[in-house]
Design brief:
globular; 6-stranded mixed sheet; 12 strands
Length: 314
């Protein structure tokens, strides 16, 4: 398929680099300032090299991308909250032109789900957003296959940064501040880690899940959110003595979203370590389905985008 990619962060870059391997052609690529368009396919490596050298991707504009002969818009710009702009307008433009849209950007489906679905319902294009929840883990595809009507809740660990910090604190008896500094040095945590350790990232993903289960009705402000900033070594040590550990757990139901540190059995399914994610999908008749894997990163998240593209082809 012919792809137009908006965003050249870790996810957009990975999608651009891997597209040929998956049988797709990148005909347009844009960052926040510049774009390059070629109906025969752009030279991805050359464009990304220009980007790495602080040079413009090309001499095209965002408007040129929407006028180009693309089949699928890949929206991988940074997540923004409330209005979810500019991603919302980008998606709207593509859907109103009857093009498909695949999202990595959480903002539009977390904050303006019903508006987005209404636009998609009136389009010949499809809207898919597997990559917004859980990186490489096919959570939304599984919900789609099982049928959301047969699912009562989705819960689990949906942020690798928080999980890395809690794992390392417990394993080495280190303080939160010490491990946070380590995580930042390793690139596991951002310079401003609030989005991750404050539970906001997990909450956004759970809001999307609740919207899918309920066909809308939720945004971030509806979520009950508590982060891990106040978890101490003492609390982790006490938990350990009882065969437990602490993990940041998000839960999405048709009633709402809750995110908070919780005690889980050390030998249990939810005690995954490091940056791993795990999700438990509770079904009406099939019990609990466990899905685990890499929940973030350029290539893992790109793999979810390619899964959506494959479903569009089929």
């Amino acid at each position: 398929m012919k792809l137009a990619i908006l965003g050249v962060g870790s996810v957009g870059k990975a999608v651009a680099q891997l597209s040929k391997e998956y049988g797709h052609t990148v005909v347009a690529l844009a960052d926040s300032k510049n774009a390059i368009v070629n109906p025969k396919g752009i030279k991805v490596d050359d464009a990304l090299e220009r980007k790495s050298n602080q040079m413009p991707l090309g001499d095209a504009s965002l408007e040129d991308i929407f006028d180009s002969d693309y089949e699928v818009l890949i929206e991988a710009t940074p997540t923004t909250l409330e209005s979810a702009e500019p991603a919302f307008s980008n998606i709207k433009a593509a859907l109103e032109a009857d093009r498909h849209v695949v999202l990595a950007n959480k903002g539009p489906v977390a904050e303006r789900f019903e508006e987005l679905q209404s636009i998609a319902d009136g389009s010949k294009g499809a809207l898919r957003f597997e990559a917004t929840v859980g990186g490489s883990i096919p959570i939304l595809s599984t919900i789609e296959d099982v049928d959301s009507k047969n699912i009562t809740s989705v819960r689990g660990i949906l942020n690798g940064t928080s999980n890395f910090i809690l794992t390392r604190m417990a394993a080495k008896n280190l303080s939160y501040s010490h491990v946070l500094s380590e995580a930042q040095d390793l690139g596991v945590a951002e310079a401003d880690p609030t989005f991750d350790v404050g539970g906001i990232d997990t909450a956004l993903k759970c809001v999307i899940l609740s919207n899918v289960l309920s066909e809308g009705g939720f945004c971030l402000s509806d979520a009950n959110v508590e982060g891990i900033q106040h978890i101490s070594n003492h609390a982790l040590n006490l938990a350990d003595k009882s065969g437990l550990t602490i993990r940041l757990i998000g839960e999405a139901t048709r009633e709402g979203v809750n995110v908070a540190p919780m005690l889980v059995p050390k030998a249990g399914d939810l005690a995954v370590e490091g940056t791993q994610n795990i999700v438990q999908i509770t079904t009406e008749h099939g019990g609990v389905l466990n899905l685990a894997g890499a929940g973030a990163g350029g290539s893992p998240t790109a793999s979810a985008i390619f899964l959506d593209l494959q479903r569009l082809i089929v």
